[in-house]
Amino acid sequence: MEYKILAREGKAKRAEMKTVHGTIQTPVFMNVGTVAAIKGAVSTDDLRQIGTQVQLSNTYHLHVRPGDKLIKEFGGLHRFMNWDRPILTDSGGFQVFSLSSLRKIKEEGVYFSSHIDGRKIFMGPEESMQIQSNLGSTIAMAFDECPSSVASREYVQASVDRTTRWLKRCKEEMQRLNSLPDTVNREQLLFGINQGAVYDDIRIAHADTISELDLDGYAVGGLAVGETHEEMYRILDHVVPHLPLEKPTYLMGVGTPANILEAVDRGVDFFDCVYPSRNGRHGHVYTNHGKLNLFNAKYELDARPIEEGCQCPACRSYSRAYIRHLLKAKEMLGMRLCVLHNLYFYNTMMKEIRDAIEEHRYAEYKERKLSGMAAGETK
Ligand SMILES: [Zn+2]
After folding, report:
1. CA of 83 to the centre of ligand 1 (A)
2. Domain coordinates of the chain in residue numbers?
3. Which listed residue (46, 68, 90, 265) is catalytic?
4. What is the 3-state secondary structure (H, E, C) of the chain?
5. 275 CA distance to ligand 1 centroid (A)?
6. pLDDT digit string (tens) for 198-256?
7. How much distance in Å is there from the Cα of 364 to the middle of ligand 1?
């Protein structure tokens, strides 16, 4: 892995990261394909067309169905879904803590019941690394606990200490798996995750500790789970300077276009979020003049594309009126076109961000983009 900073403006970083599955240009938005597919009938061919660089897949979901051993037998996730560019897999931790019932956290890991069939499952750092190794993703995430934003200080401190011990076990297990001859991707990379809820001092101490482990990248986790945007920005202001500058910085599960613009300004260069696909499936589409709700009656006879000048497959061929009709008729194509437009909007915004940092006009770009989006229709 080689990560090289190409330009900086303030804390904002424009970088590139070389991996066995190709080079990632950052800042980057990773498109979320929960079960090895973007919801909304979007194929990997579509993703290539709309400029997707990295796909994110969920370890927990793929472990439960179809099973990571099956995917390994097939030759790994890249071959399974016909995607040759980078893939990042999450650790499964977030789903274990948010979806499953009857969970019990122990030093060795977490005991819980599958959300599909109630089957008892155990997942700890070694199991998470084994599953992600079977999937053969480009980047694996460390197994961590994401404590609730309202958890007590004592709970958060104990949880973060355990997450650090788990991280060391993840690193050891990945080194072992990467050395085995039948491993799908023997150059799999590992990102560690900073936690600490809304406690700045716990987060800073944790960032310092994990930075010493010399991982391939560092994520800030446990944000966008109920705290305000201002709290999130304050935490980034405090934490990012304590993570290695010469490694990628990933803000997990964030967020709106405005959140991304603010986080880039604070030195973050990897993002993922379900908003563009989830909003698209509900007919909510992003434009440079704010978000539109295509169910609104005023688009009934609107012959314009979602956004004038947009080069996405929806805007090149179809009107707002037609897409609105498809959505109202519950035709799959309506959702698909909205999801494609939204992902294209995010991917294109990241390209604009990269160009702006390179040309040292990011501050001006950010203000223009934010005020344009805020001026328009929001709901
Ligand atoms: Zn479009």
Report:
1. 23
2. 2-273, 280-373
3. 90
4. CEEEEEEEECCEEEEEEEECCEEEEECEEEEECCCCCECCCECHHHHHHCCCCCEEECHHHHHHCCCHHHHHHHCCHHHHHCCCCCEEECCCHHHHHHCCEEEEECCCCEEEECCCCCCEEEECHHHHHHHHHHHCCCEEECCCCCCCCCCCHHHHHHHHHHHHHHHHHHHHHHHHHHCCCCCCCCCCEEEEEECCCCCHHHHHHHHHHHHCCCCCEEEECCCCCCCCHHHHHHHHHHHHHHCCCCCCEEECCCCCHHHHHHHHHCCCCEEECCHHHHHHHCCEEEEECEEEECCCHHHCCCCCCCCCCCCCHHHHHCCHHHHHHHHHCCCHHHHHHHHHHHHHHHHHHHHHHHHHHHCCCHHHHHHHHHHHHHHCECC
5. 16
6. 999 999 999 999 999 999 999 999 998 888 999 999 999 999 999 999 999 999 999 99
7. 24
* Active site annotation includes 90: yes
Residues in the 5 Å CB sphere of ion ligand 1? 306, 310, 312, 314-315, 341
Mean pLDDT of the chain: 94
Model pTM score: 0.96
Query: Model confidence over 288-330: pLDDT tens digits?
Result: 999 999 999 999 999 999 999 999 999 999 999 999 999 999 9
* CATH pick for 2-273 out of 3.40.50.10490, 3.20.20.105, 3.90.960.10, 3.40.140.10: 3.20.20.105
Q: Is 272 a catalytic residue?
A: yes
